[in-house]
Design a protein that fits this description.
single chain; alpha/beta; 42% helix; binds S-adenosylmethionine; SAM-dependent_MTases_sf
Length: 357
């Protein structure tokens, strides 16, 4: 995780972590959709949503889909790492296309399950539907005349789903106030990003600058740990995952302390949001629950997650645990985690939010 970390303050090579971030996004797809639906339901029509530290774009995609379903809007991806912006932009565009396909009644068996509550028909959607039907009638005629015409279905889906603009900004959010980088936002979302900034409280203040009056800031931070392994794996001392999580904590502590200009934030996220001048501060958590036996997506996530903890916490575990982890992560070894039927994903995403006056 050392190496070319020129873009951020945390000595992490984020481009190298793209497969892990994508794998996490896959298992979080349903949770992301639930959170996006809940947050967007509080926003005005055609909102501007900024995803600060968008990573591989799992939540950007969930917001984009939700905006498409609710009549449109703008999503602005902000990240310090251009490779990640490419991946996030692709994910968000694909989500809009899926939302448009869903509107025409087609189903994509490969699409993640993102259907959530709160997507009922509104007057605005009804008008869009009628407009689409009118266009569909015209397009059907045009399609018989012009070979290059996109076709009735494409015209219908574009008209049915709200138009979603996807913008991208490459920036270090610790070096500039967000208001200098993006248009005024109804919602600024930042998941697992603020803790990578040297001064988290200053970072939050920078994010708040981009909010419109009465806009919302929402952060995913401080979620309880994710568990994936049985307590006794039958190899080595039981409780490996607990020890690994403790090692990960020590890595995290050092990651924060080693950041140039690092400032401690000795209070909780609700206090941090209140200190940033936000009101009606609160939080909610959503469960990420993929019970054993795991499907391929959950299995890949567990392997990526344990490999990350093993790598980050390497110097904080015993030699015995290090040797066991090497075996658990080796596809050729009979102890390979990927062959077990009892691995699972149980975690939470905790969202802290507050509103600008
Ligand atoms: C742990 S990832 C989280 C990604 C995504 N929000 C998620 O929840 O999966 C942290 C993200 O923040 C970005 N990041 C870290 N420091 C940053 C900075 N100073 N400015 C902008 N982006 C930053 C990284 O490039 C990475 O995409």
């Amino acid at each position: 995780m050392t190496g070319m970390a020129a873009h951020t303050h945390d000595d992490i090579d984020w481009a190298e972590r793209i497969p892990a971030l994508r794998s996490a996004d896959r298992v979080h797809a349903r949770t992301h959709a639930e959170i996006a639906a809940r947050l967007v339901s509080h926003l005005a029509d055609h909102p501007v949503v900024v995803d600060a530290g968008s990573g591989a774009g799992g939540m950007s995609a969930a917001f984009a889909a939700e905006l498409a379903r609710r009549g449109g809007g703008t999503i602005v991806l902000v990240d310090a790492v251009p490779e990640l912006l490419d991946v996030a932009e692709t994910a968000a565009k694909a989500a809009v296309e899926r939302a448009q396909s869903d509107r025409t009644g087609r189903t994509d068996p490969d699409a993640p399950a993102t259907e959530t509550a709160g997507t009922g028909s509104t007057g605005q959607q009804q008008i869009a539907l009628e407009q689409a039907r009118a266009e569909l009638a015209g397009a059907a005629t045009a399609a018989t005349v012009g070979r290059g015409h996109p076709g009735a279905e494409a015209v219908a889906s574009a008209a049915l789903a709200g138009q979603v603009s996807i913008e991208r900004v490459r920036a270090d959010v610790a070096s500039a106030e967000l208001a200098q980088l993006v248009q005024p936002a109804d919602l600024v979302w930042a998941a697992s990003m603020v803790h990578h900034l040297p001064d988290q409280q200053a970072g939050i203040a920078g994010l708040v600058t981009a909010l419109k009056p009465h806009g919302m800031l929402a952060l995913v931070e401080g979620s309880p740990p994710t568990y994936c392994l049985p307590w006794d794996l039958g190899i080595g001392e039981p409780g490996l995952e607990r020890r690994l999580l403790a090692a990960g904590d020590r890595w995290f502590q050092r990651m924060r302390a080693d950041m140039p200009g690092s400032v401690r934030m000795p209070y909780g996220w609700n206090t941090a949001l209140a200190k940033a001048g936000l009101e009606r501060v609160g939080s909610f958590s959503r469960l990420v629950d993929l019970p054993a036996p795991s499907d391929e997506a959950a299995r890949n996530y567990v392997l990526e997650h344990i490999a990350w903890l093993a790598s980050a916490g390497d110097e904080f575990v015993t030699q015995e645990d290090r040797d066991i982890l090497r075996r658990l992560l080796d596809p050729e070894d009979r102890e390979y985690l990927g062959n077990r039927e009892d691995i699972y994903v149980l975690g939470t995403q905790t969202v802290h939010f507050g509103w600008r006056r």
